[in-house]
Amino acid sequence: MTNRHVEFAMTDNQMGDFKVDFGQTLFMCILYVSIGTISILCSLTTITLYLSSRDLRRKYILYLILDICELLDAISYVLLGTGRGHQLLTGVMAVPITVRACFFTKYWPQSLILGTQLPSICTMFLSFERIMAVVRPAAYKRCCTQNFKYMLSGMVPVWGVLTLLAAGASVIGEDGDRVVGTRHCAIITSTSRWYATFHFIFIVLAYVIAFVSTLVVWATRRNLTKSKYGSQDDKLGMILAMSGTSIILLASPAVVMLTIRWDITEWGDIEVAVTYAMPGFLSVVNTIIAFRFRKELRSQLFHLLGIKSVHHKPEQSMFTRTTLTTRRHTQVHHLT
Known about the structure:
Layout (H helix, E strand, L loop, with lengths): L2 H7 L12 H30 L2 H6 L1 H29 L7 E2 H7 L3 H27 L1 H7 L2 H25 L3 H4 L1 E2 L12 H32 L5 H32 L7 H8 L1 H16 L1 H11 L12 H18 L1
Antiparallel strand pairs: 1-2
Membrane topology: Multi-pass membrane protein
GO biological process, one term: sensory perception of chemical stimulus
Family: Belongs to the nematode receptor-like protein srg family.
């Protein structure tokens, strides 16, 4: 056994911190770099397609911002994997460090925060749009203009600045003086307990809201349209299932991280790596779903590749169709 392995084996890992094992931690770093690289390619593909078409940019502006945020999340995986890998290979992974030093001297905690919170805030904005389109179609048409969507898009970086300021402020006091036994410098060991708890609850809550909004759309369309838009209901059903799955996948790293931070249990780096990689996997899955359900996106890809595709009529979004159906239903009600 080498001196480095002896150092890791003799590390006294305290509760509220991570374990250090050379093999498991190396697996974690490789997994993060791999999933981050794949996610970067997926995000760059969809971002390029949106930016190359003026119509797509206007129609899917919030989805474009979401993909940009997911690109940041993918980059954070690469930074996390390379940063921890460097600590591991240089033999300093088990050297104690303060929470404050983790946040201010390491280059990946900030990207971890932004890479998970910014997609969540975008998801909440999209959920708001869904609810408005179905529950208040007239108000949706009046309020959710293109300028309003631009305003929501501008709020995303504002949120990023505010949440980083809050994270930095959380380690100024006694919480920042806490010494952790490893240099994983995750969110739970780079910020205060209250901020880390808020962070993971906020992420899960955002996707719960997305699930509820999709459920409302699905239930409304099911009541208003029985068979005419059956295929669209199938699409909504799949999106509903994916939203529910997203909650489970994103709740798993939240449970792991918060149980570590609140001294409830301990987890090895393999469990932490697999659960924390779930948002990266979701980014890849979301790209596949986008190509599956958006003909315009596929057509733009064929256009850029110089491949002729069958011309399709402009595709209405599910929310536009629901709005039109709601109006038609209201008119029939008044006539009868």
